[in-house]
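Try this one yourself first.
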């Protein structure tokens, strides 16, 4: 079984997600106490996909996150660099155009998508700034980005409890439901090491995004960041 290190070598991360693909959605539901469903609904609202729009869903995994966009009549492309995740998704949602791709070198032309979104995947990319620039490149002028990612709880006492849960409770729970519990030790560490909300907003601006803002969910356990590509 594979566990990636925090230097996020792409082959390590991809292999790790290949290992957990079969039970990934179930494991996320258990570990988040069902909150992941609410978070994904908020992502769908923020993206605000419309019929005939082109939506790029990065780190889409099995495609669960892509379904709300498809239901609006938008053309959604689920993209991930884990072949195992894509294979599992393709068995269930055969009509989705699953695409293998690295977020730092996207296999798409400039100015293609009306919106680009990534949920719980940006912190697993080796070069965050390169990925943000690539997302900017493939988004059409006037288009938007929505990032849903674990962040830093805003209330200090809760932040302490949350950190304890990540490092002590999450791995044992993962052992009961995941095919690769060691992967969730890495995921817990990567959440703890991730920049806070203002720091990620600055990185978005540095990659060329404008009108950058964020909104906290579940007290800052998760944050939704949004930005626009200037026309």
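Now uncover the answer:
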């Amino acid at each position: 079984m594979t566990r990636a290190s925090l230097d996020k070598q792409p082959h390590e991360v991809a292999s790790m997600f290949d290992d957990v693909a079969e039970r990934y959605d179930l494991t996320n539901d258990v570990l988040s106490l069902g909150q992941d469903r609410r978070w994904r609904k908020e992502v769908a609202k923020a993206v605000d996909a419309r019929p005939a729009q082109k939506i790029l869903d990065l780190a889409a995994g099995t495609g669960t996150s892509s379904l709300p966009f498809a239901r609006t009549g938008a053309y959604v492309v689920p993209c991930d660099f884990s072949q195992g995740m894509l294979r599992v998704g393709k068995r269930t949602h055969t009509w989705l155009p699953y695409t293998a791709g690295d977020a730092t070198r996207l296999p798409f032309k400039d100015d293609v998508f009306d919106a680009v979104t990534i949920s719980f995947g940006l912190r697993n990319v080796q070069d965050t700034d390169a990925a943000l620039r690539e997302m900017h490149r493939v988004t059409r002028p006037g288009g938007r980005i929505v990032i849903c990612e674990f962040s830093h709880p805003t209330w200090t006492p809760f932040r302490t409890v949350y950190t304890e849960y990540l490092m002590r409770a999450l791995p044992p729970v993962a052992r009961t439901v995941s095919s690769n519990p060691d992967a969730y030790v890495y995921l817990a560490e990567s959440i703890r090491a991730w920049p806070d909300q203002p720091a990620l907003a600055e990185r978005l601006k540095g990659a060329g995004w404008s009108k950058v803002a964020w909104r906290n969910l579940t007290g800052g356990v998760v944050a939704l960041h949004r930005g626009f590509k200037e026309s």
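Discussion: Residues 1-6 have pLDDT under 50 and may be disordered. The longest helix spans residues 156-177.
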